[in-house]
Amino acid sequence: MQTFHIRTFGCQMNEADSQEIREMLLSLGLTETENWENADLVLVNTCSVRKKAEEKAFSFIGETRAWREADSGRRLAVMGCIAARDPDGIRRRFEFVDAIIPGKDLDAMKKSVRDILPEDLALLPHLSGYPASNHGSSPVVGMVSVIRGCNNACSFCIVPYVRGREVSVPPEKVVDRVARLVEGGSAEIYLLGQSILDYGKEWTPPFLLEDLLAKVASEVPGLRRLRFITSHPKDVTRRLVEAVRDIPLVAPYFHIPFQSGSDKILERMRRDITVQQYYETVDLIRSTIPSASISTDIIVGFPGETDEDFEGTMEVVERVRFDGAFVFKYSPREHTLARLKWGDPVPPTVKSQRFIRLYNRVKDIVFEKNREKVGTIGEVLVEGARDGMLYGRLADYRMTHFRGPPEWIGQLIPVRIESAQNWSLRAVALSEHTSINFSEARPGNHQEVIAS
Ligand code: 5AD
Ligand code: SF4
Asked: Which of 54, 152, 157, 300 most suits a substitution to test ligand 1, by most atoms within 8 Å of the C-beta?
């Protein structure tokens, strides 16, 4: 067995798990291939959050049948949330799958992957201590899961079922992981959790997310930017917001899903928050950090959502003017209270109409807010190059495209915003002629900018 391929669906926590497993396989001497048909080992990391996400994974697993059956030495594993939701269903439908590996516990996942490798590979030492240079370069933006599982009980959500109760990763382990990714070339780190503001609450004394942000920011040399997602709005505290304001490496960005603008629906969703309280959270953030950007998740067509409830959702969007938003149509999930109690009564056409109206309004507002950025200056962390342009995000999470040499990938580059698009910005890299003191901002890169 020589080559592997990992296909990842779903959220960034899945990406983080895939990255750790990738590093383990590289450390065992396997090489990664972009084309799964050339691989000896294929891992599919799956998502169950909505039906559509599951269907994408199922369709890919189906495609691998001929590949797996053509050679008995090949191995195929299905990991992550579908593996937890319905292992028997996977076994029945795809009997050629070699292993089904739920995503609750990363060490257990690694062990299960090792168990399907040939013995000579699986026995090599691997879990700790292999040098950073062995695992290839890290992505420019590294993902680190700091809390797994979710103790909330939102009635629509399958995550508590597939990922279990919350378990926080000890701070030292988080720092080690961040340091490792930064050594491998990551400049920005996203700390991840389904409900990240519960981080460290299970310990006595607690060691909360704001404590973790301070620790990571001060203990990892070379780290340029730090972000955290996803925050439940009911758990946003003044102490946290002030930490985001006061720790320079932490990006002033909050992803706080509100899901619905109707108190009746929020109660059915068991969100444990009212619309008024959501506004107070937004006010707390904006009054403490005027430049903060706020994004959200919204569900339309939840059981019992009337036209009036939906208007409430439109009103929240109008009043908060989000910097970004993900809009979803309600998808009934197995094992959830909402599906058990209410099924899926809102007709698909109504869901679609609401979705389109909401999506278009969100898009227009994001565009208007993007236009307000034209003429401002910021720093983009360059993630890659596409179609002759570099791309990356500003601290406020706005995707930005500009011209520059590929050597800038992985660096923070000061830019001026030139124009706005629906979901992104166009910019120009700043030269030494602008008001920003460039040589101070990016020691050592003066020449490159002049050359551009
Ligand atoms: N149907 C639709 N959207 C859902 N989400 C979670 N569960 C469902 C569901 N059953 C959305 C929520 C959550 C985001 C990750 O996915 O908005 O914040
Ligand atoms: Fe999908 Fe949620 Fe699982 Fe992430 S945790 S893969 S979003 S179901």
From this structure: 157
